[in-house]
Amino acid sequence: MPWPHRLEQARGDLLVCSAAMETNAQILDGKAVATALEQDLAARVAKLKDRQAGRTPVLATILVGDDPASATYVRMKGNACRRVGMDSLRIDLPNATDTATLLAKIDELNADPAVQGILLQHPVPKGIDERACFDRIAVEKDVDGVTALGFGRMSLGERAYGSATPAGIMRLLKHYQVPVSGQHAVVVGRSPILGKPMAMMLLNAHATVTICHSRTQNLSDHVRSGDIVVAAVGRPRFVKGDWIKPGAVVVDAGYHPEKVGDVDLEEAVKRAGAYTPVPGGVGPMTIAMLIAQTVEAAERAADRARA
Ligand code: NAP
Questions:
Q1: pLDDT tens per residue, the chain (307 residues)?
Q2: Among 59, 69, 114, 67, which Cα is nearest to 91's?
């Protein structure tokens, strides 16, 4: 039975129709999946505490400068840590911080055995060598999946923490049993933290992948051929509804202050078979994956300490 009927059978409880959106497309409910994942993580954190005489895993977050959106994201990540019973160590550095100072702070956190995960909120202010700072994070603490080493390992199919947003998208697709193997996935965007790792993860899951970017010609034709479309462009409602192949799975990674993503979802859902809402789709999964990867890093550190 072709998808989405097969999926409808498997997860009938999660099939939701949105009257407001005039669609029968399935909502890939990132908020619900992230909440369930957090419950599981809370139990793993409690177990870790038992193993470590009450010590909780710690995610260190580094915020450089005073960008309000970045400050909000860091706060949301700290709140998620608390929800699962973990601690977060928040480090705020001024806008004028230079690369050497930030590298020294990362070195300090790398050497701190109480810290299992490090998140450097990006973008960092202009003038800081962001790539050098990302790559200074010890790969075993790179729970946001931003290092070149982590990206390389993940791309080769070796063990590594994936970039949190695409890793969250893969988890969401898996949860809803969206077929990926053999499907044509079109990723619009090729940033190091989103488009590129997304494409590699889909490729590793045996999709046939097309990566589009600002120099791509006939973009709408590429998108129209996608069974799975991931929009990671950074432009509000950029992917139009009539670019979507009927029945395609639409993943909207974008988020803009007007609470819309990178897809014109109102139109796209009329053709899509399934889609991630904005808000409530990819965003919550990103945070949940960051926390999940921190818990995993803490479990591995505890295993190493015991060995
Ligand atoms: P980015 O670094 O600005 O990258 C945007 C990508 O889109 C680039 O690869 C760019 O191509 C491509 N692009 C720009 N204009 C285009 C056009 N006209 N046609 C085709 N491609 C075009 O952005 P990002 O960090 O990947 O973020 C993308 C989106 O995801 C944003 O909306 C952001 O807010 C969102 N985001 C969400 C989360 C979350 O947790 N939900 C996390 C991170 C990001 P070139 O490479 O050729 O310039």
A1: 335 544 444 344 344 444 456 789 999 999 999 999 999 999 999 999 999 999 999 999 999 999 999 999 999 999 999 999 999 999 999 999 999 999 999 999 999 999 999 999 999 999 999 999 999 999 999 999 999 999 999 999 999 999 999 999 999 999 999 999 999 999 999 999 999 999 999 999 999 999 999 999 999 999 999 999 999 999 999 999 999 999 999 999 999 999 999 999 999 999 999 999 999 999 999 999 999 999 999 999 999 988 8
A2: 59
> Could you confirm whether 196 is annotated as catalytic?
no
Locate tokens 């990206």: which residue? 151
Ligand 1 close to Cβ of residue 214 (< 6 A): yes
Annotation marks residue 40 as catalytic: no
Annotated active-site residue 77? The verdict is: yes
Q: What are the tokens at 275?
A: 């889609």
Q: Is 121 in the pocket of ligand 1 (CB under 6 A)?
A: no
Atom of ligand 1 nearest to the CA of 194: 26
Question: What does each C-alpha distance from 231 to 4, 56, 199 come to in angstroms?
Answer: 21, 36, 11
Query: Is the bond preceding residue 279 a cis peptide, omega within 30 degrees?
Result: yes
Domains of the chain plus CATH, in order, are 7-28+176-283 (3.40.50.720), 54-139 (3.40.50.10860)
Q: Which of 26, 29, 116, 121 is catalytic?
A: 121
Q: Is 165 in the pocket of ligand 1 (CB under 6 A)?
A: yes
